[in-house]
Amino acid sequence: MSRLSRANLKARESVFAGGSELYRGDIQAICPPNLEECVMAMEDCCEEARLALALEIDQQPYVFLLIDEGTVKRYKSDLIDEIEPSVNELIERAEQGLHALYKKESTLQSKIESARAKPRSTAGILGPQKLEVRRLHILTKQRERLEEEVLAMESEIQAMVCF
Questions:
Q1: In the structure, what pLDDT confidence band is assigned to residue 149 with cuts at 50, 70 and 90?
Q2: Which one, of 98, 103, 101, 133, lies nearest residue 118 by Cα?
Q3: Residues in Cβ contact with 40 at an 8 Å cutoff, skipping those fewer than 6 apart
Q4: Were 67 and a residue from 71, 102, 110, 157 both cysteine, which residue would form a disulfide, CB within 3.0 to 4.6 Å?
């Protein structure tokens, strides 16, 4: 228990009881008896303050450590050296997967084109119906060719308007 936590019932006398002029430049002055008690009380206060601060610091969830810039750069380069191969491998895998998806897409596109271009089988269809199917196929091709010509002409008109 600190001396400060105990109640001091008697009042303390002033250090400068005889006037402060006596103590101002007098090196050989005799210390008053209350001065030692004041110093001890002050030391107790400082000790209690240090303990309270230490307890408060211990209860903090964060601790900050100050380091120099060289250490930060060294840790950064170590981290780059450690992570870079994994990142490069993941990038390579992603590129391979993307290439495989592009290949699959082109395969599917070619299947779609071949399915569109392939005339439907006419097995089991009578003569006049075969002619209708053939005529329908020719008209479909003609319509697609005309749509392409319309798009080409529209783009030419847009080009002329812009100039």
A1: very high
A2: 133
A3: 3
A4: 71
